[in-house]
């Protein structure tokens, strides 16, 4: 500690090399960016394929220039590298802001300010309130007299609640920098471990073991403590627990990307088949002696002497190069740009902006946009996701007598007045209970034992908690403690339930809660001796206090399942009945009990606690054993009930998801009764729902095998049932091992499933179980807390809610939304649009490349398989980059085949795109066949129309480049107009890009063929395009071939819409009829007003004017 020399006579101390405190989350450096990025990009099959084609063009004599493959590949690699480099630059920038953060260090009795990355293991650090711990620290002393400090760990585990940490007992009395700097001690600790919940073995000065309550982790924030002195760094930099949890998310691949790869393999097989066929036919055609060496294609002496196999292989590679454009390399960069730019529509959506948080939806990854339109299973947390996680005290029960803060008695509302504060709603009337500074209870004819239990119950609620008083603070950007612009005090705690109980005592019983160091004030002074903190295993917490009369009391509160087994007396049946009733109503319940301790029992408890805290090994297990010994033989006092209200429009959202064909599962750690009540309130369950139960109690009464098969028989008898399941820990293990299929069969036939008492890892296991089923459905997980991160990362799509349990879920998710209600628009609107757009993009790219390259294949039959290209090099290079790229990119960004209002109003339209319906093999084959048909029309239409040698007005003949230019012109116009026919949502930018692309092609062709370019070693395209346009038959051929090519697709659409329309097509027709009716009404209105009638051709413009004029007309 403090890098001091060992005292004289001590053992030799060999200094060790520890890492500095630098955090590195970036992927590249200035020196390795180019080689590392290129290596990663060429690991993609498509990029590597085009690199091979480019190298083949450089090595052997190919019919096309290497520029035709090299330029598109260079463009794709450059754009991707710029994108990844920019993202990594942002990570470098974030790392620098963290590493250069100022930190106060104690050196030679003084506080010296330095930068975070300069910290070393052993430095003594000073941290002040609201500052973040720069590394993993051991708490030596605190500004609080009891040596405690309060910390929030929202950036670590997502919990924004305040946790209590304790200073080392040997150093907790230090108050100044000089005292801390004078410390001579050593710390021994284990190697760093990434597990946040596993405490490393740490020894202070070789004799005192330290626990998790002494270790402050990097990333946590100091709260409600003025400052802490003398914290010492034990783990720094990339060895801190926060850095060890910087695990990159597993790469999630969407269903569209998998379909693209499958289609790519098909087209690669087509490409190889074309090359093989042409190679075989070439040698078959040249087998005849008179065709061996045509006069225009003489071979050199080296070519004559080469082996037949080598010549055939060279020709095969040449054909591969000639036909390689059937693989759309530019499709990948277009898809990347579409996903990246399209993700901004979510962040710009004003309807998904939350005024309370001051934030809107966030996109953490744009690779899964289209997956939002394919969701089949939704796994959701309950607390904080379906509910607000804003607890409100509802009632308390003491020995069967129920007390509520406000009630109606004889038609009058009894509010929290000075003397009427809590009303007993038990049978037999009501009574007044008032508590001011002194706990006093009065009731006529009340029994002494009941009065005593009332006294103890309310004292237990006021004493058994970890609540602190806090002024204004900001947690994750949310300000608390502000009322009418002025700061006010409020309560903070490690549990929102505790805050609700204390606030209920304050408002309902007029209790003034004082914050003291070791005492709490009620009717008398109580000294707080020990706190047995809550943990998820025990599910309870306890305090040992000493009253001013010297009496020792142990107060305990916790879940009913952990309290009732330890009760020896009290009205258990009455309290249990009330707890079950509250659980059915959806309330969160806690049971309260106490135990009086004699002096000897207290000393024995202290002995057990101290012995466990000083244990050098198995410290956590020893503490759990000590708690188990102390927390027993309780007297039951009563129970409390708090309500976690349902989020706004949560029920409407779940109902819409059901109509869209999604199955909703609720995975929660709450008890079954409470969770089931929430499911009924959120319309996940109906009152007519048939319930299928799989509980631990039932599996104890019957074997799991019998229960499962009985449920399965019920399902088979009634296939369309709704139900829910509760999976306990033990049964989940058995299901994973032996009964997975039957369990999945039961759940697949249920419209909704509820799993209770789930640990975070079990939530992920349930999601993984559904993902691995034979249907391989697309899953979505949504939650707001750190306990939901595992299932969010496991699901195909993870959505985090910016809730009150911190931002860990939002940070680890693919998308983040402010409220659960925003999930409806996220899936039904944005997901629907994203999938429609990218599905059209993928199919259109393959279609236009088939149209592009198949005429080249047909042309080889007319040129002796000489590998003569049909198109000019410039056209080969720019076809996918310039002539046809922008229209489909814009289409994939702004297309709306149906309005947002219609999609939100009719969720069933989501079913039309389910199960990747637009990228199935029949649809893919239709687009491919359509491309082949159009390519045949292009080629043979031009061939037969110009079967006889055509002359222009000046007597010149059309040559092969004119023929190729004619085919290419028809090709560009046809594929562009095909996209125009598929466009439903027209804007000015659509018109500009579509017609502008065609105009750009014409202008480029005029310039390319109208100027003698000095940098070209050939001028074969000079005056070709102008010569073609000067011919009347060429114009007629272009118009005729475009019409014939587009006609089959138009006929197919008309027949499908007429004979078997989909729900989406019916909605489109209904919407058009509605717009037409509104336009006619508008024309009647404006004609009566003396205004010129509007044309109904532009429906969108007419609708906007309609709404504007009608609203103004009716107002006037």
UniProtKB/TrEMBL annotation:
PROSITE patterns: ATPASE_E1_E2
Known catalytic reactions: a 1,2-diacyl-sn-glycero-3-phosphoethanolamine(out) + ATP + H2O = a 1,2-diacyl-sn-glycero-3-phosphoethanolamine(in) + ADP + phosphate + H(+); ATP + H2O + phospholipidSide 1 = ADP + phosphate + phospholipidSide 2; a 1,2-diacyl-sn-glycero-3-phospho-L-serine(out) + ATP + H2O = a 1,2-diacyl-sn-glycero-3-phospho-L-serine(in) + ADP + phosphate + H(+)
Residues passing through the membrane, by range: 262-285, 316-335, 874-894, 924-946, 958-980, 992-1016, 1022-1047
Tagged with keyword Endoplasmic reticulum: yes
Compartment annotation: Cell membrane; Early endosome; Endoplasmic reticulum membrane; Membrane
EC number, as in UniProt: 7.6.2.1
Domain P-type ATPase N-terminal: 12-69
Entry GO terms, CC: early endosome; endoplasmic reticulum membrane; plasma membrane; recycling endosome
Protein name: Phospholipid-transporting ATPase
């Amino acid at each position: 500690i403090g890098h001091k020399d060992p005292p004289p006579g001590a053992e030799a101390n060999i200094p060790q090399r520890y890492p500095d405190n630098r955090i590195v989350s970036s992927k590249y450096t200035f020196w390795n960016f180019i080689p590392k990025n290129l290596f990663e990009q060429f690991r993609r099959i498509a990029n590597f394929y085009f690199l091979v084609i480019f190298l083949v063009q450089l090595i052997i004599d190919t019919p096309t220039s290497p520029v035709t493959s090299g330029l598109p590949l260079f463009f794709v690699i450059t754009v991707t590298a710029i994108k990844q480099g920019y993202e990594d630059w942002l990570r470098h920038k974030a790392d620098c802001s963290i590493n250069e953060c100022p930190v106060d260090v104690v050196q030679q009795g003084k506080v010296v300010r330095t930068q975070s990355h300069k910290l070393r293991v052993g430095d003594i650090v000073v941290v002040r309130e609201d500052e973040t711990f720069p590394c993993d620290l051991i708490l030596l002393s605190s500004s609080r007299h009891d040596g405690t400090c309060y910390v929030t760990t929202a950036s670590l585990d997502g919990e924004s609640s305040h946790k209590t940490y304790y200073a080392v007992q040997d150093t907790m009395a230090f108050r100044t920098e000089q005292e801390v700097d004078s410390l001579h001690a050593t710390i021994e600790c284990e190697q760093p471990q990434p597990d946040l919940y596993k405490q490393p073995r740490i020894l202070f000065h070789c004799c005192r073991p330290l626990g998790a309550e002494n270790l402050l982790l990097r990333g946590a924030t100091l709260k409600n403590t003025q400052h802490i002195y003398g914290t010492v760094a034990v783990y720094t930099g990339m060895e801190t627990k926060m850095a060890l949890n910087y695990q990159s998310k597993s790469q999630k691949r969407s269903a569209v990307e998998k379909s693209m790869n499958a289609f790519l393999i098909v087209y690669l097989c087509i490409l190889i088949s074309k090359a093989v066929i042409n190679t075989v036919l070439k040698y078959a055609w040249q087998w005849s002696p008179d065709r061996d060496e045509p006069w225009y294609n003489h071979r050199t002496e080296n070519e004559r002497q080469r082996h037949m196999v080598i010549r055939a292989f060279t020709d095969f590679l040449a054909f591969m190069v000639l036909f390689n454009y059937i693989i759309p390399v530019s499709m990948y960069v277009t898809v990347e740009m579409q996903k990246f730019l399209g993700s901004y529509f979510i962040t710009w959506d004003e309807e998904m902006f939350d005024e309370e948080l001051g934030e809107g939806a966030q996109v953490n990854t744009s690779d899964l946009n289209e997956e939002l339109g394919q969701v089949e299973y939704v796994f959701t947390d309950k607390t904080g996701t379906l509910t607000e996680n804003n607890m409100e005290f509802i009632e308390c029960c003491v020995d069967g007598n129920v007390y509520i803060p406000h009630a109606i008695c004889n038609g009058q509302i009894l509010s929290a007045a000075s003397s009427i504060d809590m009303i007993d709603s038990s049978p037999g009337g009501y009574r007044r209970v008032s508590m001011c500074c002194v706990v006093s209870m009065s009731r006529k004819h009340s029994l002494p034992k009941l009065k005593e239990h009332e006294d103890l119950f309310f004292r237990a609620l006021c004493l058994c908690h970890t609540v602190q008083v806090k002024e204004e603070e900001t947690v994750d950007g949310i300000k608390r403690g502000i009322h009418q612009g002025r700061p006010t005090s409020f309560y903070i705690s490690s549990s929102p339930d505790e805050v609700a109980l204390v606030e209920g005592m304050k408002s309902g019983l007029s209790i003034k809660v004082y914050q003291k160091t070791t005492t709490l004030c009620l009717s008398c002074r109580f000294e707080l001796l020990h706190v047995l903190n809550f943990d998820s295993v025990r599910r309870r917490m306890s305090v040992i206090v000493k009253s001013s009369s010297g009496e020792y009391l142990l107060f305990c509160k916790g879940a009913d399942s952990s309290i009732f087994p330890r009760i020896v007396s009290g009205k258990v049946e009455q309290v249990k009945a009330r707890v079950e009733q509250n659980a059915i109503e959806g309330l969160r319940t806690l049971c309260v009990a106490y135990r009086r301790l004699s002096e000897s029992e207290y000393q024995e408890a202290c002995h057990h606690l101290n012995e466990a805290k000083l244990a050098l090994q198995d410290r956590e297990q020893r503490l759990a054993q000590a708690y188990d010994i102390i927390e027993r033989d309780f007297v039951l006092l009563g129970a409390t009930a708090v309500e976690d209200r349902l989020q706004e429009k949560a029920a409407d959202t779940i109902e819409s998801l059901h109509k869209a064909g999604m199955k909703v599962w609720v995975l929660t750690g709450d008890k079954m009764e409470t969770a089931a009540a929430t499911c009924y309130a959120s319309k996940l369950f109906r009152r007519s729902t048939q319930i299928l139960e799989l509980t631990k109690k039932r599996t104890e009464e019957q074997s799991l095998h019998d229960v499962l098969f009985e449920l399965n028989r019920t399902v088979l008898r009634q296939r369309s049932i709704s139900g829910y399941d509760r999976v306990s820990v033990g049964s989940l293990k058995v299901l994973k091992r032996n009964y997975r299929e039957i369990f999945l069969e039961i759940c697949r036939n249920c419209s909704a499933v509820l799993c209770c008492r789930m640990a975070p890892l079990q939530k992920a296991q349930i999601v993984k179980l559904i993902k691995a089923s034979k249907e391989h459905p697309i899953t979505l997980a949504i939650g707001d807390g750190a306990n939901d991160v595992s299932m969010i990362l496991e699901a195909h799509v993870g959505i985090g809610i910016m809730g009150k349990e911190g931002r860990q879920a939002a940070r680890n998710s693919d998308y983040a939304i402010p409220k659960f209600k925003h999930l409806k628009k996220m899936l039904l609107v944005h997901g629907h649009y994203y999938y429609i757009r990218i599905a059209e993009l993928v199919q259109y790219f393959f279609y236009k490349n088939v149209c592009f390259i198949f005429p080249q294949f047909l042309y080889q039959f007319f040129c002796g398989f000489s590998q003569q290209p049909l198109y000019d090099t410039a056209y080969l290079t720019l076809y996918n980059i310039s002539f046809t790229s922008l229209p489909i990119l814009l289409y994939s960004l702004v297309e709306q085949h149906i309005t947002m209002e219609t999609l939100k109003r009719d969720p069933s339209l989501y079913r039309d795109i389910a199960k990747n319906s637009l990228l199935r093999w029949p649809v893919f084959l239709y687009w491919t066949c359509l491309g082949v048909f159009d390519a045949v029309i292009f080629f043979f239409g031009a061939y037969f129309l110009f079967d006889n040698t055509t002359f222009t007005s000046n007597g010149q003949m059309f040559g092969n480049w004119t023929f190729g230019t004619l085919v290419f012109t028809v090709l560009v116009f046809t594929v562009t107009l095909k996209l125009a026919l598929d466009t439903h949502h027209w804007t000015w930018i659509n018109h500009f890009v579509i017609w502008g692309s065609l105009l750009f092609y014409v202008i480029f062709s005029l310039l390319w063929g109208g100027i003698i370019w000095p940098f070209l070693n050939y001028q074969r395209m000079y005056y070709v395009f102008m010569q073609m346009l000067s011919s009347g038959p060429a114009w007629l051929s272009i118009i005729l071939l475009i019409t014939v090519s587009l006609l089959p697709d138009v006929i197919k659409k008309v027949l499908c819409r007429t004979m078997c329309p989909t729900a989406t097509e019916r909605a489109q027709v209904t919407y058009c009829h509605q717009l037409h009716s509104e336009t006619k009404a508008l024309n009647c209105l404006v004609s009566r007003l003396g205004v010129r009638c509007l044309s109904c051709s532009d429906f969108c413009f007419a609708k906007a004017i309609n709404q504007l004029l009608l609203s103004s007309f009716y107002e006037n």
